[in-house]
User: What shape does this take?
Amino acid sequence: MDLFEEIDKKAIAWIIKEQEDLSLKEESDLKKWLENKSHEKSYNENKKLLFDCKNLDEEFFDECLDNTNKSNIFQKSKYFVASIIALLFVCVFLLEHNKNKALFSKEFISKNEKMLNIALEDNSLIDLDIKSKLKVEYFKNKRVVNFHEGKALFSVAKDKNRPFIIKMKNAQIEVLGTKFEVVNLSDKVSVKVLSGVVKVSYISDSKKKKDLIQLRKAESFSLDNKGNILGFKKTDLTQIASWKNDFIYLENDSLKDATSFFQRYVNKKIEFDSYEVSQLKISGKFSTKHFNDFIDSIKLLYSLEVNEKEEVLKISKK
Assistant: This one.
């Protein structure tokens, strides 16, 4: 390999490194290397060629690779063939790097106040209940939400070229355009669909994906963090994301589950003196702003006693 070939090789190496961000030392080394006029010329020419490649499609790459096999000219210069292949490889690398680079990224965290009507850049909307956290990232070929915890209502704008994917620790939801609620709490995920079609998958701890179900309008589905299906049923559309209006709908839920729903809205810890009491069932519509009405209801319904000490409620049989 002659001197100019070596300079070209070094220039391409620097350009690739730049795509992955340079350290302060590397920036200094590159600046020093470019002080040489031959280095600078090779760097500028190769950088222009490589970045022009970002606008080329796969057919171009196939054609170029085909030509490298057929052209007598290339046979006369092994270095030129190797250079073209290397450049195509780097172009593919740059295209993939660009495709996987987020075009839009923002984190949303609600603490003690709901965040409603969050407008995204594609006109999708998100409503967040209190104590919820998620991060939205839009890429060239997909829209991704990393939903860490809480409750959210998604109104997804249609985009057939970019599916909308919601990722949780052990579940994934994928849609093209629809409206649905996701609750990600206490190692359990539930999904309720207002419109459209929603695909739900289980993600194992080893990151293996297993498609479970496609939900349609007025259907609900829940699973735990081990992939066990907890429920599938028709649901009342008026009850979906009722937390937006400060209500909780309970449908034959255990007192343990019901009180866990309320604990998001009240700064109290709730305990039961026995498993039997925790599994008593309750149904009804309750305000998240009137926790005491819920407590009065279960006291009357089951003749329970509720004692409070240092922000801890102890529920027991009389």
Notes: The chain has three domains: 3-99, 104-236, 246-317.
